[in-house]
Amino acid sequence: MINDTIIPKKQKIRELYFCLLIPIVTIATLIIQSRELIQSKWLQQMKWLLIYLSQVI
């Protein structure tokens, strides 16, 4: 009897874990991509600033 009640609970926990895993991974991926995009834009702006300053000086 005890094993019968524990196994379905473990299965429900696994199902819940996998249901939550997909949105969490998706959100984490979007956050990482947005950070990379912000960093690349910042680096591009710094590059243009350095090019401008090198021409002025």
Can you describe what's shown?
This protein is mostly helical and 57 residues long. The protein is built from one helix and no strands. The longest helix has 55 residues, at 2-56. The protein is rod-shaped, with a radius of gyration of 25 Å. The mean pLDDT is 83.
Tally of DSSP helical segments: 1
Number of strands: 0
Structural class: mainly alpha
Low-confidence stretches: none
Mean pLDDT: 83
**In percent, how much strand structure appears in the residues?**
under 5%
Keywords:
57 residues, mainly alpha, 96% helix
How are the SSEs ordered, and which strands pair?
Blueprint (H helix, E strand, L loop, with lengths): L1 H55 L1
Quick description:
With 57 residues, the protein is mainly α. It has one helix spanning 2-56. The mean pLDDT is 83.
